[in-house]
């Protein structure tokens, strides 16, 4: 019955921090704690229901016994009125037996009622504690997820600027410079390989262009 409270004390004590430190995944551990607590509550609810049923059964038996006491009292009075003392005596004798049984049943019922009231109170405390820890669980899970995200981002950021990444970037930069230098060199070589005839051919092309421009001017086709 009180296993639940022992578990709660463990959860809210420093042992929880130690267990979470050793846990591979604190979020999963918190979920497991809550499942265990919910299971304990269901178990206690079953015990409380049985105790309440027992209390009601004893109350019904006590009521029946007390009703029989009252009945025997009325019967004894009726027998006296009828002048039947023997019948009245037997009714009173049975009444006495029923009173003893009623007294015993009343004591049992009152004890069962006290136990039921205490168990109901404990169950209410359990449920309140569970709800309190449920809120705390949600907060801890959110903080754990946030911490995981920050850690992952920090690791990513640190890997971006490490020596290996920077050296790789510098190697690629040097290759680009090399490609550009080779392109410039090939253009220079191409220009150097031009012959004297190539240059005169370009000059003649320039003359034709000048003559074409003059003709268009003369014909008003500019």
From TrEMBL:
<protein>
    <submittedName>
        <fullName>PspA/IM30 family protein</fullName>
    </submittedName>
</protein>
<dbReference type="Pfam" id="PF04012">
    <property type="entry name" value="PspA_IM30"/>
</dbReference>
<dbReference type="InterPro" id="IPR007157">
    <property type="entry name" value="PspA_VIPP1"/>
</dbReference>
<feature type="region of interest" description="Disordered">
    <location>
        <begin position="130"/>
        <end position="207"/>
    </location>
</feature>
<feature type="region of interest" description="Disordered">
    <location>
        <begin position="92"/>
        <end position="118"/>
    </location>
</feature>
<feature type="compositionally biased region" description="Basic and acidic residues">
    <location>
        <begin position="130"/>
        <end position="148"/>
    </location>
</feature>
<feature type="compositionally biased region" description="Basic and acidic residues">
    <location>
        <begin position="107"/>
        <end position="118"/>
    </location>
</feature>
<comment type="similarity">
    <text>Belongs to the PspA/Vipp/IM30 family.</text>
</comment>
<feature type="compositionally biased region" description="Basic and acidic residues">
    <location>
        <begin position="163"/>
        <end position="181"/>
    </location>
</feature>
<feature type="compositionally biased region" description="Acidic residues">
    <location>
        <begin position="198"/>
        <end position="207"/>
    </location>
</feature>
């Amino acid at each position: 019955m009180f296993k639940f409270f022992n578990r709660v004390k463990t959860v809210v004590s420093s042992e929880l921090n130690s267990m979470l430190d050793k846990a591979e995944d604190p979020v999963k551990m918190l979920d497991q704690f809550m499942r265990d607590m919910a299971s304990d509550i269901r178990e206690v609810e079953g015990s409380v229901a049985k105790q309440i049923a027992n209390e009601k059964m004893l109350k019904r038996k006590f009521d029946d016994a007390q009703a029989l006491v009252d009945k025997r009292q009325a019967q004894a009075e009726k027998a006296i009125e009828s002048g039947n003392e023997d019948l009245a005596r037997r009714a009173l004798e049975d009444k006495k037996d029923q009173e003893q049984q009623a007294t015993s049943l009343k004591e049992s019922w009152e004890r069962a009622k006290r136990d039921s009231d205490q168990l109901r109170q404990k169950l209410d405390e359990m449920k309140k504690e569970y709800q309190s820890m449920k809120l705390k669980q949600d907060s801890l899970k959110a903080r754990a997820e946030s911490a995981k995200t920050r850690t992952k981002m920090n690791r990513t950021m640190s890997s971006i600027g490490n020596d290996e990444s920077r050296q790789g970037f510098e190697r690629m930069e040097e290759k680009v410079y090399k490609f550009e230098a080779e392109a410039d060199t090939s253009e220079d070589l191409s220009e150097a390989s031009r012959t004297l005839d190539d240059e005169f051919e370009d000059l003649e092309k320039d003359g034709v262009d000048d003559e074409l421009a003059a003709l268009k001017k003369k014909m008003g086709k500019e």
